Each structure stands twice: as C-alpha cells, then as structure tokens.
Here is the input.
Amino acid sequence: MCHTIDSRMFSLLLHPDLDQELILRSITQYFDQSVFSLSLMWRSFEIGDYEWIGEHAKLLQNFAGILGLLEVNQITQSLQNLCESKTADDRRKEIEETICSLEEANKRAHFWLYVNWEIRTNF
Here is the structure.
C-alpha cells in the first residue's frame, strides 16, 4: 500500500512562503469535491451507471493530485479502469469494494490534510 500523502507535497504545503489562503482554498475544495464525488459514485452504483462512477473518480483524482494524495490517486485510477472495462457489470462487487476503499483512503487524506493545516497555522 502506498503512503497517504506525498512527503514532498506535505513539506511543500508547510513551506512558509506559500500563500496560506491558496492552501486553505485547495484543501477546502478537495474536501467539498470528495464528499460530492463519493455521494454521486454511490448513487451511480445503485443504478448501475459505471461510466459516471469513472467520471467522478477522474474528477476526484484531479483534485487529489494537486495535493499529492497518493493513496486516493491510486484507488481512483483503479476505479476508473474497472468502470471503463466492458465487463463492469460483471465486476460490480469489485467496484463496490473499490468505492469503499476510496472512502477509507479519503478519510485518511482528510486527516493528514487537517494535521498539515494545524501544523501550518499553529507553529
């Protein structure tokens, strides 16, 4: 399993020369997008719309990439691959498990981003 957050990005986010408002906006946008995307992934899963799951995984991956969230990036890529395949209907259980894994990775990412923000603003 890969690390939750890229150590270089973690260090960069703590760099004092970076604009604090920009960092806060990026973190907030990721939080909002992850909640939105995961909610829509589950709705799409319920109706069997795997293409939309893949689209939301790609969108979330773009936001996660900006912040160096390695685990989220890896899982969203796997989810996109599952949803793009011609056998997505046959892989329903695997897609469901991958969305669950993405939720857990997202919780860890939220934690580390929160820790990063607290370190940045309090030290």
Summary: DSSP finds five helices and no strands in the chain. Residues 21-122 form a domain with the Four Helix Bundle (Hemerythrin (Met), subunit A) fold (CATH 1.20.120). The mean pLDDT is 88.
